[in-house]
Q: What sequence folds into this?
């Protein structure tokens, strides 16, 4: 197997996975540590090293609120029960790479995955991200760490004077783009195909994908995009806030400095990263949608405009798309944004992804859409909650505490196979990893509004064609007169 590779910074030594046919490269630096004077600056190239660097340990988690200390909290128990053990640091710009390649000549497709967490939390090796299981199906899996919260999405007028022409307000997104560019330059050494990269993410990771398909700086870097429970068309009534203007982002930055009782960015750089992060988490968005201040900024360099006009007018990258949501996550977002959890409330993602699918079809783009509606077991009866599909996409049910049974494992194998097929061919159809043909999944077109439902087993349905739904879509897309 391919265990040692030469990349632009030096030699890397990977380690065998639990499946020894997979080589794992943990903590691969793709940019210089954004510390000291590089706090709140665009990512710089990683330093070179002498000799062979062992890639056998995950890097620190990006600085955020303390993780994994409250087991009564749903997502601590679900996704981060051991997260309290992990080191946090500003020095967090690292990739993790799982490769089944035997040689550099294999030219395997690449899946570049961005974790969620509301732009303020999460990390690249959460327990549901089993890159080994995905890589075993014949692709290279990459996950990326990036700056979060006030450290990743800060803007201030001091930066205009300090670094004229540089982006600000999007440091975490620039990190993701820098990691993607590093993968494109170096993945051939791992047996990957730099011309067959698909990006993907869930929740804020899907929102990040939306920025990458919109930014002029990432054009030509990937050929497919997967958005799970986030991203897509940010229309009227969307559960997500529009991207901030640069003026708003800089006002948020000034609020942070005022709350920290410092007078300049230079002075703020001398404060501990944890103080910056925790203070930033305590600031509220003052009537804007969303639970926190931090997120994408229209900075006129990385992002030229908000996603809604960019998508409505077709100013996004011409790649294949796969997107969808879980059936019961609407209750979470209704509680967060509307103060309600009534059963009759509409899942905001129903319109959110339905309109995006229609728009992609109108623009002649390939688009596959899904709803994850499987029965998730457990005494808490959580339904198909926000993030429940991750266990199936990564075929990682064995890592979860829930009492999954045979039907769940069958569906996980199928869902993961669809995702891998999309990464390979920009089409989820084809064979299950057990060699059987997967149920057909037709793309969403102007004539056939097909949606894949992941229930006890995958099956397609055609979106209802009612006057009420058409009117709702017109309103959401701003097409009413």
A:
């Amino acid at each position: 197997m391919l265990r040692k590779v030469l990349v632009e910074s030096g030699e890397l030594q990977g380690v065998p996975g639990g499946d020894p046919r997979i080589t794992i490269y943990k903590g691969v630096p793709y940019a210089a540590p954004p510390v000291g004077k590089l706090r709140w600056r665009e990512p710089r190239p990683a330093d070179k090293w002498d000799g062979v660097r062992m890639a056998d340990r995950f890097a620190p988690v990006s600085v955020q609120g303390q993780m994994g200390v409250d087991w009564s909290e749903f997502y601590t128990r679900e996704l981060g029960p051991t997260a309290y053990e992990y080191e946090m640091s500003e020095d967090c710009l690292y990739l993790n790479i799982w490769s089944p390649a035997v040689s550099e000549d294999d030219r395997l497709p690449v899946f570049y995955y961005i974790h969620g967490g509301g732009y303020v939390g999460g990390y690249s090796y959460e327990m549901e991200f089993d890159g080994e299981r995905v890589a075993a199906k014949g692709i290279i899996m990459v996950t990326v760490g990036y700056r979060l919260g006030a450290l990743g999405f800060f803007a201030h007028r001091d930066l205009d004077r300090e670094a004229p022409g540089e982006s600000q307000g999007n440091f975490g997104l620039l990190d993701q783009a820098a990691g993607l560019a590093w993968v494109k330059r170096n993945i051939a050494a791992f047996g990957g195909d730099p011309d067959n990269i698909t990006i993907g993410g869930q929740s804020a990771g899907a929102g990040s994908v939306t920025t990458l398909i919109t930014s002029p700086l990432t054009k030509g870097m990937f050929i497919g995009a997967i958005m799970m429970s986030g991203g897509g068309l940010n229309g009227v009534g969307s559960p997500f806030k529009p991207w901030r203007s640069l003026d708003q982002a800089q006002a948020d930055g000034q609020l942070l400095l005022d709350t920290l009782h410092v007078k300049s960015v230079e002075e703020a750089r001398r404060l501990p990263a944890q103080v910056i992060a925790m203070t930033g988490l305590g600031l509220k968005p003052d009537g804007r949608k969303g639970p926190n201040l931090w997120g994408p900024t229209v900075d006129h360099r990385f992002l030229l405009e908000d996603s809604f006009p960019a998508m409505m007018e077709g100013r996004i990258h011409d790649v294949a798309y796969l997107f969808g949501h879980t059936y019961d996550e609407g209750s979470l977002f209704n509680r967060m944004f509307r103060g309600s959890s009534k059963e009759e409330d509409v899942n905001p993602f129903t319109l959110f992804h339905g309109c995006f699918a229609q728009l992609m079809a109108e623009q002649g783009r390939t688009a596959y859409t899904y709803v994850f509606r499987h029965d998730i077991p457990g005494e808490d009866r959580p339904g198909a909650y926000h993030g429940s599909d991750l266990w199936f996409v990564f075929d990682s049910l064995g890592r979860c505490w829930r009492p999954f049974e045979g039907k769940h494992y069958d569906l996980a194998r199928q869902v993961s196979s669809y995702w891998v097929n999309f990464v390979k061919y920009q089409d989820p159809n084809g064979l299950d990893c057990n060699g059987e043909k997967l149920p057909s999944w037709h793309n969403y077109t102007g004539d056939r509004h097909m949606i894949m439902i992941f229930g006890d087993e995958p099956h397609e349905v055609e979106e209802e064609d009612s006057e009420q739904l058409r009117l709702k879509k017109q309103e959401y897309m701003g097409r009413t007169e």
